[in-house]
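F.,

This is the one I mentioned.
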């Protein structure tokens, strides 16, 4: 096999632990994987209970090392990392097929020298990377779903959930619970006079003072554009007023300046607490808002509690406009959700059996080589990510084609060929309505165009073909030639496949991209 360049830049971080008594297997594995991952390390060991000290990226288990239930015991001792079961030959797959999972593959001994091992390791590493990315994304999305990005406080939706929970807790144990809503009364004026950037700076400054002024058990949240709410457990109305007074005094001394002019936020605060007439979260919120409205009547910074309103014997009548406006705001916020469109799309189509069995493995390999090719060409990161996504989705249109045509071992009839050539158009029909895939659609639609203009579906030529499509065309041809196909069970060797791509340079493929790909593969 001709030496291959580093297709995985962080190869130095890849460690393979090989549970085997055969040193030749260890050396062969190192030699094979070094073509793709020059810095890879392969360490052999024979006792499942005494693995090498360095944590492995992948573990390979030689089944010939075990008898009876020894393999099961060895697998149970493995850490939660990807693994490969090494079997004598593929006639043994039926025996060991029960061990296959999404993070465990099977490889025959003969494949230790070829693409079988490389693809298995790559597939497991990619799966592990996606697994870790999904965990990080899940944690991040959970954080985003409950936090306000600017202030770091809980957002309105989560605040309402926490408020309901705290009210139930306080009522159950007959404890005090206070609520204060602080509004920057002149926030609109600050934005208009000094700009939104300074307005945000004021809000962040106010939030910082509030955070440093309350106890660890207190719960601040961004209630509105210019409003911060603070839930105060074990706090009655009088104590809540003292806390609010302290916060307002600190905020008034913030001393923010812009172009020589001091920016002084004017604060209005409404306070409420659980009591005889305030027993639910709705009661508490409504009472605090009523007190806030009354506080805003003062032109200067002010604080108002429901008790103070009662003492003045003022009847705060229902303001239908305020009720409607707040109702609309709360309804809008309650529907707020952060959605990862691309992940949702892959989840949706990933449930289709045809995709799992035939299309996705090929698409993942095409996406991998497309991204590496784009990176070697020096394309910016956002473009390489777009190329990767387009590679994953380039054959989505085949979901609409009869699987018997896609897996037909013999020559396709003319009508079958015509239908198969429509798969880029079918993909666009499936995906094209989304505004999130504008960059990827061109690569998906035109990945079967030829550089000489003899391709399909629109017979584009040269640089009129989107660069994403030109990249995917080379990557897909490479994958098709180096893997078994229904019409050609035996794949081409890596050298022969690369020679075929070079021969099609300038006719089927962009010659510049072929040159990059040749350097990437052959070195």
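My design for it:
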């Amino acid at each position: 096999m001709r030496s291959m360049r580093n297709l995985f830049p962080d190869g130095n971080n890849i460690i393979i632990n090989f549970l085997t008594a055969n040193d030749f297997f260890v050396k062969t594995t190192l030699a094979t994987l070094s073509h793709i991952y020059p810095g890879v390390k392969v360490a052999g060991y024979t006792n499942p209970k005494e693995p090498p000290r360095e944590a492995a990226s992948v573990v390979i288990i030689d089944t010939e090392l075990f008898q009876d239930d020894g393999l099961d015991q060895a697998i149970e001792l493995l850490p939660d990392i990807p693994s490969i079961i090494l079997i004598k030959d593929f006639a043994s797959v039926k025996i060991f097929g029960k061990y296959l999972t999404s993070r465990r593959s099977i490889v025959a001994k003969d494949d230790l020298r070829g693409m079988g091992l490389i693809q298995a390791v790559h597939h497991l590493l990619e799966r592990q990377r996606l697994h870790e990315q999904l965990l990080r994304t899940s944690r991040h999305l959970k954080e985003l779903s409950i936090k306000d990005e600017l202030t770091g406080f809980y957002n309105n939706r989560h605040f309402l959930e926490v408020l309901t929970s705290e009210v139930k807790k306080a009522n159950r144990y007959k404890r005090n619970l206070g609520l204060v809503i602080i509004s920057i009364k002149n926030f609109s004026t600050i934005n208009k006079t000094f700009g939104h950037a300074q307005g945000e700076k004021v809000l962040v400054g106010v939030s910082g003072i509030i955070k440093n002024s309350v106890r660890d058990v207190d719960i601040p949240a961004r209630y509105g554009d210019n409003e911060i709410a603070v839930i105060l457990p074990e706090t009655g109305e009088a104590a809540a007023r003292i806390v609010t007074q302290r916060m307002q005094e600190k905020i008034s001394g913030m001393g923010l300046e812009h172009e020589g002019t001091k920016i002084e936020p004017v604060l209005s605060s409404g306070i409420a607490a659980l009591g005889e007439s305030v027993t639910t979260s709705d009661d508490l919120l409504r009472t605090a808002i009523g007190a806030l409205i009354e506080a805003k009547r003062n032109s200067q910074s002010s604080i108002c509690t429901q008790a103070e309103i009662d003492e003045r014997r003022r009847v705060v009548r229902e303001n239908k406009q305020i009720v409607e406006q707040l109702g609309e705001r709360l309804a809008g916020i309650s529907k707020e959700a952060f959605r990862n469109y691309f992940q949702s799309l892959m989840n949706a189509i990933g449930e289709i059996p045809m995709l799992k069995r035939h299309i996705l493995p090929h698409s993942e390999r095409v996406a991998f080589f497309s991204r590496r090719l784009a990176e070697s060409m020096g394309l910016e990161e956002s473009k390489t990510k777009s190329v990767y996504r387009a590679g994953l989705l380039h054959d989505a249109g085949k979901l609409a084609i009869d699987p018997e045509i896609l897996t037909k071992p013999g020559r396709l009839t003319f009508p079958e060929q015509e239908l198969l050539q429509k798969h880029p158009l079918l993909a666009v029909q499936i995906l094209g309505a989304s505004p999130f895939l504008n960059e990827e659609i061109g690569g998906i639609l035109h990945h079967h165009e030829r550089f000489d203009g003899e391709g399909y579906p629109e017979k584009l030529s040269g640089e009129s073909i989107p660069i994403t499509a030109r990249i995917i065309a080379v990557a897909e041809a490479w994958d098709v030639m180096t893997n078994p196909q229904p019409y050609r069970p035996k794949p081409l060797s890596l050298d022969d496949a690369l020679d075929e791509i070079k021969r099609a340079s300038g006719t089927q493929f962009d010659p510049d991209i072929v040159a990059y790909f040749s350097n990437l593969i052959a070195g």
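The longest strand covers residues 177-184.

Talk soon.
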